[in-house]
Structure formats: structure tokens, C-alpha cells
């Protein structure tokens, strides 16, 4: 398994090799196929997870059945710690968007691990602070930005994590359906499709199934502001 991926996880940042190996050995591996659910919003939870390969979506469902995606996460990213630090049920449903491999650590082992390791605890706080900052941006965008602006921002955010630069632009294999992209942006599929088609007609992006090529990052970034 790729130790470089593990090193990106906040849990492992600032740890020497010996400590990282010891922690890795107390974690167990889980694999999901595309579409399988790891856990559901409301479940009791006693583990946190680090993604080693693949992608997951973190979603919530309204009482009338509509779905919203809080985030899409990929290799090196971590989730499942909220129900430890703020004891309560799982705050989101986690579903594999592609075949995915995780390492998991029980909350009990994590607490034991944090004792006397302030650098690791700081890494986790940094992640939580970053998430709160991002969640604030999402709320502000829902209030202040139009749908095309939110679509532009979502594409750039996906590109930061999953983009690969090539001669013809940044290839972003997000692996999301148009419905899932719409759930991530918090708008209807029709409105999101219209925004994407508009960006494509201007030559800013090229649309491909479950992927997009960003050909004009600057214009897209200007539209996202
Ligand atoms: P937990 O509530 O245990 O299970 C669902 C997990 O999703 C949660 O812990 C967090 O790790 C993660 N999560 C919840 N909200 C967000 C968010 N807005 N952005 C990214 N991750 C989140």
C-alpha cells in the first residue's frame, strides 16, 4: 500500500517513520465496490477512515428524499472523526463513487494514539478548521452566488484534488454523474447542465462522461468569484 498517500492524511502528518509504521499496523483495510455504502447518516460509528485509493461521496438526505453532497473525497483524505469528537450518530452517508480502498482506525485506538502526541492532534484540528472554513464558503455561496458561479467553483475544487495537467487543459476525472454534480452544487440537474453547456460553448471546458477538461482555468475562476 502506498505510504505517500498515507502521509497526506492529517493523522499521519508530523509523524516519524517509526510511529507511522506502528499506527499503520493497528489499522485494518476495507474495500468497497462502486455504489456500495460504507455507513449511513444516523448510524452509530466507532471508526475513522483514510482513503488509500478511489473516491467517496459524503451525502445527506432530506426528509422528502432529496440528496445533497457535502463533499467528494479522494486518496489521503480522512473522514469519520466527527462522531468521536462530538459524540453522536454519523453526520453523513458515505458511498463509494469508484472502487475504493480505506484504512480504518477505531475511535478508541485513535484516542490512545493522540495521548502525548500534540503534533498529531494539531493535524486533526487543522483539518477540522479547514472544513469549517470550507463549509462557511459553501453557505455563503448558496446565499450570494448563482448556480453557474457555484458550478465553476465546484469544478475548480474537484480539479485541485483530482486534476491532471495535459497539453489540452486540466483533465478532471471526478467520476460523478451529472445528478451527483448537481447534488454537490445544491441545484437541479437541469440548471447545472445548462451552466455546463454554457461553459462548454464558450470553450472554457470540454465535457466528457464522469470527467471534464478545463481549458480556461482563468475564465472559470473569474466566473467562480
Ligand atoms: P462522522 O459524522 O463520524 O461521519 C460522517 C463524516 O463525514 C464526518 O464524521 C466527517 O468526517 C465527514 N464530514 C461531515 N461533514 C463534512 C463536510 N462538510 N465536509 C467534509 N467532510 C465532512
Automatic annotation (TrEMBL):
This protein's species is: Nocardioides marinquilinus
List residues of the HTH crp-type domain. 145-218
**What would be one Pfam family of this protein?**
cNMP_binding
Q: Which residues cross the membrane?
A: none
Q: What is this protein called?
A: Crp/Fnr family transcriptional regulator
Query: Mind telling me which PANTHER family this protein's record contains?
Result: CRP FAMILY TRANSCRIPTIONAL REGULATORY PROTEIN (PTHR24567), HTH-TYPE TRANSCRIPTIONAL REGULATOR ARCR (PTHR24567:SF74)
What are the UniProt keywords, alphabetically? DNA-binding, Transcription, Transcription regulation
Q: Where is the Cyclic nucleotide-binding domain?
A: 11-131
Q: Which PROSITE patterns match?
A: CNMP_BINDING_2, CNMP_BINDING_3, HTH_CRP_2
SMART domains linked: cNMP (SM00100), HTH_CRP (SM00419)
Amino acid at each position: 500500500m502506498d505510504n505517500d498517500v498515507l502521509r497526506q492524511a492529517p493523522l499521519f502528518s508530523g509523524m516519524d517513520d517509526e510511529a507511522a509504521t506502528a499506527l499503520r499496523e493497528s489499522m485494518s483495510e476495507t474495500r468497497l465496490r462502486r455504489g456500495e455504502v460504507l455507513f449511513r447518516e444516523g448510524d452509530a460509528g466507532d471508526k475513522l477512515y483514510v482513503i488509500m485509493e478511489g473516491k467517496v461521496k459524503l451525502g445527506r438526505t432530506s426528509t422528502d428524499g432529496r440528496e445533497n453532497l457535502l463533499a467528494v473525497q479522494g486518496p489521503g483524505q480522512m473522514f469519520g472523526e466527527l462522531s468521536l469528537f462530538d459524540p453522536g450518530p454519523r453526520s453523513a452517508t458515505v458511498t463509494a463513487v469508484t472502487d475504493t480502498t480505506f484504512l480504518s482506525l477505531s475511535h478508541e485506538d485513535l484516542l490512545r494514539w493522540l495521548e502525548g502526541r500534540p503534533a498529531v492532534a494539531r493535524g486533526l484540528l487543522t483539518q477540522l478548521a479547514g472544513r469549517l472554513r470550507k463549509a462557511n464558503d459553501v453557505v455563503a455561496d448558496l446565499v450570494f452566488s448563482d448556480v453557474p458561479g457555484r458550478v465553476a467553483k465546484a469544478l475548480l475544487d474537484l480539479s485541485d484534488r483530482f486534476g491532471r495537467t495535459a497539453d489540452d487543459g486540466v483533465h478532471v476525472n471526478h467520476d460523478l454523474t451529472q445528478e451527483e454534480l448537481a447534488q454537490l452544487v445544491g441545484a437541479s440537474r437541469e440548471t447545472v447542465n445548462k451552466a455546463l453547456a454554457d461553459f462548454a460553448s464558450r470553450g472554457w471546458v470540454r465535457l466528457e462522461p464522469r470527467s471534464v477538461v478545463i481549458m480556461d482555468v482563468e475564465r472559470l475562476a473569474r466566473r467562480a468569484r
